[in-house]
Amino acid sequence: MSEQTNQPSADTQTMDINQIMSILPHRYPFLLIDRLIEIERKKRVVALKNVTINEPHFAGHFPDFPIMPGRAHHRGHRAGRRGAACSRSIPQPNAKSKLMVFRSIDAAKFRSPVVPGDQLRIEVTVLNWRSNAVKMRGIVTVDGKLTCEATVMCAMTNRKPVEPAAGAAAE
Fold it and tell me: Is the whole-model pTM more than 0.90?
């Protein structure tokens, strides 16, 4: 890893949380991955997510029997992996002006509940890669048991600069 940029080197096969945050725009509570353990550029990514009781959705999603909502389980975790996988292919001068966003989710199936204390293993495989879009198949397992699967499509879009709020004091 380069000390000056905090960016992973080209041959990095894993990424810790600091490296992930250096390339993804997501932050708590939407970062939703803790470590990338396998990276095959434009082919496959394997990530880990440690599920904890202090995540905001557990406060209201079956408080007496906390289970991760399917929406968070499926969409949020996949967003992180795809973003990391796709961002690595954006040429560095353009990385801050581009953003990978969801376009569609197909064939989503939730097989078993995810509860606090589980560690998700998320495997995402690229099915079709184009310069501005990618179609991927993802599966999520806990202790080797399939909990979720889906096919998703993401597309590259331009980031819009954030304008200062009207009346904001200039420094």
Answer: no
